Amino acid sequence: MRGFWKFFVMQFRLYLREPVAFFFSLAYPALLLLLFGFIYGNDPAPEFWGRNYGTVDASVPAYAGIIIGTVALMGIPIDTASNRESGVLRRYRATPLRPVVYLVASVLMYLSVALLGMLILILVGKLVFGLRFAGSWLSVLAAFILSALAFYAFGYLIASLASTARIAQTIGMVIFFPMMFLSGAGMPIQLLPEGLKRVSEFLPLTYVVRLLQGLWFNDPLSKLWLPILILFGILVVGSATAAKFFRWE
Amino acid sequence: MLEQDVIIVEGLRKHYGNVKAVDDVSFHVQMGEIFGMVGPNGSGKTTTIECIEGLRIPDEGSLRVMGLDPQREVYELRERTGVQLQSSNLPNRMRVEEAMDLFASLYRQPTDWHPLLNELGLTDKRRAFYSQLSGGQKQRLFVALALINRPEILFLDELTTGLDPQARRATWDLVREIQARGTTIFLTTHFMEEAERLCDRVAILDHGQIVALDTPQNLVNRLGVSRRIVFQVNGQSQAISRNERNRVDSTVFNPALIGVIDGVQRIEQQGDEVVVYVQGEGLISTVIQALEAARVPFHNLRSEQANLEDAFLALTGRDMRD
User: Fold this and answer.
1) pTM of the model
2) How far apart are CA B196 and CA B227, in angstroms?
3) Same domain assignment for residues B97 and B16
4) Within an 8 Å CB–CB cutoff, is residue B131 touching chain A?
5) For residue B85, which phi and psi values (nearest 5 degrees)?
6) Residue B180 sits in the same domain as residue B127
7) CB of B87 within 8 Å of any CB in chain A?
8) Residues B268 and B171 in one domain
9) H or E element: which one contains B153?
């Protein structure tokens, strides 16, 4: 594990020095929350979220989906493919750095970025709108990590299948943006017409939002086994495929 | 096999699709020498060096680097060798000192990198981002990174490509200094002059095969050519069309005129330029006399020592620059 922490810290710094990545994963979700929070307020909206919860309460776990999706589908594919394209990965490969150390340090870094983005979001919700929370922090954290890892595997798969960084970026965006609006992450799924609601059932991000909102509102686990199962499935299949297709050059 | 052979390559083969990139290459590199592999682009230099570095898997052949198998013992190999790759980069927003610090942390026994940066003239640039460095500075940074583990063998792949002549000369001095400290150096280049000035021994590679391997001096001597006499005929022909020029050349200058001189080995003519390969001294005046006697207008006549470029031409029948 020689070099692990140095590598982790370096990757983290490099990520934060990328203005676009910094904005979309750390600032953008909090700005969205401020915008819609000021428009709709956080009074309970029974027709949407039940008697006890308002728009901000529901948006915070939903925006977790935006954070995870941004890091997984834009950050990881672009970083990885451009590092491969420009020969950065080649240079690492010519050192004693073990591939598993590189991958674990990178995944941990992306996870830390997403958690940091989530923390900022929660703080804004709490301080500005009196965010309500009924669940257990530990289970929300566990669900967040499960969702992030499942999506990250998918991000690495895109990086490996795309021949250039530009293609990786395009694929990531084409998958991410429609999914952001159709999964309930960017806007409540209740606002979608019936046909689009059907579509959302096929989008992986929908299950991230369902799981996190469910845990946030302290729904019984019996109501959440489907998203958990689907996300586990994506994690297992995604990791195996990503590992199979991963290439250094 | 000599005890001081630190790299042993036997029967190395590697193909990509139908292209035989390396076709049965064998050689030894001795401890402490600067060993050069020269040849045009696509001759198999990079594939060979990357197989030795453990970055590519050979199709056939046996490789030993300090007794290590570059495939099975690749991490041990990386601890003890330094690698400067032909095409690689660092992340644009990584600072010079961060790169040194990061790479040092990846090795078992890193050296203190501060004097290393100083030696390579990068101390002023330690806070600079990688993207802010010039081509020469990037190249020096990669040399610094390759030296960070005090390697026993240093691999340099096309080290001076893209550098201006001044930076290239400075780099040669640097390579000699590294050698003086006892590091064996394996380099590839497509600059014949570089190989000639820098290397103790040179392998000339063409179409994936070694066509010659010796000291630069022996390679040149082996040609039996000691110098070249170069001159231009028909300097006024620039105004004449291409077809006419060829006609004028063939009528005005007849190579046989010089070919009959004792000691002349070969004559080549490309457009206006005539190159006469001669063995022995004192032939310049004979050539001049012959030209004047035949009233051939010539100018720009000069004599050049034969070099590796001539050796390459003689061995492969092709010009390096083609």
Assistant:
1) 0.84
2) 16
3) yes
4) no
5) -90, 155
6) yes
7) yes
8) no
9) strand B153-157
ipTM of the complex: 0.90
How many A-B residue pairs are in contact by the CB < 8 A criterion?
62
Distance of CA B269 to the CA centre of its chain: 26
Same domain (yes/no): B202, B280: no
Question: Quick one: B49 and B189 in the same domain?
Answer: yes
- C-alpha span between B301 and B309 (Å, rounded): 20
**Residue A179 token pair:** 């999914």
Residue holding tokens 């010039």? Answer: B134
Residue B66, in any domain of the structure: yes
DSSP per-residue codes, A207-231: HHHHHHHHHHTT--GGGTHHHHHHH
Give average pLDDT by consecutive 10-residue segment, chain A, 249 residues: 89 92 91 94 84 90 96 94 94 93 94 97 96 94 97 94 94 94 91 91 95 93 93 95 87
Give the structural domain span for B98: 5-218
- Chain centroid, CA A11 distance in Å: 18
What are the chain A neighbours of B55 within 8 Å (beta carbons)?
90, 93-94
Q: Is B284 part of a structural domain of the chain?
A: yes
Whether residue B105 lies within 8 A of chain A, CB to CB, comes out as yes
Q: Are residues B129 and B158 in the same domain?
A: yes
Distances (CA, A) of B171 to A167, A214, B97, B137, B149: 38, 63, 21, 11, 20
**Cβ separation B89–A87 shorter than 8 A:** yes
Hey, are the CB atoms on B106 and A18 less than 8 Å from each other?
no
User: What are the structural domain ranges in chain A?
Assistant: 4-245
Strand order across the beta sheet in which B264-270 lies: B264-270, B273-278, B227-233, B298-305
Q: How far A3 CA sits from the closest chain B CA (Å)?
A: 5
Comparing C-alpha atoms, which of B55, B66, B1 is closest to residue B27?
B1
